[in-house]
Description:
By secondary structure, the chain is α/β, with parallel strands linked by helices. It has 14 helices and ten strands. It has helices spanning 24-33, 36-39, 52-61, 71-79, 124-136, 141-144, 152-160, 171-179, 188-194, 210-215, 217-236, 238-249, 257-269, 276-299; strands at 12-19, 42-49, 66-70, 84-90, 95-98, 114-118, 146-150, 166-169, 183-187, 204-209. It has a five-stranded mixed β-sheet with strand order 2-1-3-10-4. A five-stranded mixed β-sheet has the order 7-6-8-5-9. The radius of gyration is 20 Å and the shape is globular.
Amino acid sequence: MSCLPARAENVTPIKVGVLKFGTVNWVMDTIQANGFDKDEGISLEVVPLASTQATAVGLQGGSLDIVVTDWLWVSRERTSGADFTLVPFSTALGAIMVPPDSPIKTLADLKGKRLGVAGGPLDKSWLLIVAYALRTANIDLRTETTQEFGAPPLLAARAKQGQIDAVLNFWPYAARLEAVGFTQLIGLEDVVRELGAKGEVAMLGYVFNADWAEQNPKAIDGFVRAAEKANELLATSDAEWERLKPVMSANDPSFDGATFEALRRRFREGIPERETTSEEADAKILYQFLRELGGAKLVGKGAELAPGTFWHGSAQ
């Protein structure tokens, strides 16, 4: 016997703020195209925005119900009295990429080289790489390389043009470089394990106000289930990825078959598979490295990851 669709008056609208060309769009599109939201008695309204700052402002101001950001932001906000919380979105992280035929084979080979770093000096991936290099190779990348901080697409272009020797970039840009022959010097997945994580860590998550979730348990539980259904489909269905191609290639003139394959593979590898308690335990470990290297400018006043940063359900 098939389930009847939820009656219109019982459908809860949820506004999700997303970066215009962010990978979360792929999940939201999959949810909507397959009716996973309607099956759960919710209706997604996807709001495209130009920056992470805009998504944060929308969430803080109440014009958005859910955004995607990292647990460090959530912890810092909670330490300051906010009530945001997070459900893991992706374990896909960045990587240091080097050009084809690069002489750089190890972190030690970066000494004296020009290294592009996506974001700024307080970027989480950068600080974790710094901690890793100090621990495993006894080199301080902050003083032994010349860093060029910048936007991910700009640094990817400069790496292709040979204007920088290597680039630490977010995973979608690293995957695009992989598609044109670049190789991975080291990925953040290896870094976090060396620093004490027990598995692949979801730095990013779906972030929302815990009070809103407590008042709308069916809505948040329905959203989480819909996202899980989308992930399951994306993990197993090549046909679904074919359908997504126009979304993936939007605003990307260099999109081709190799890029598509690299993005699909890396996305699939980043689908979270662990319990939230395991994610939280590893986040607490990584938090201490980020606090030590980034200080209050990065983590705020919290000496440790703020309790409640990870959402454990409305019964917590």
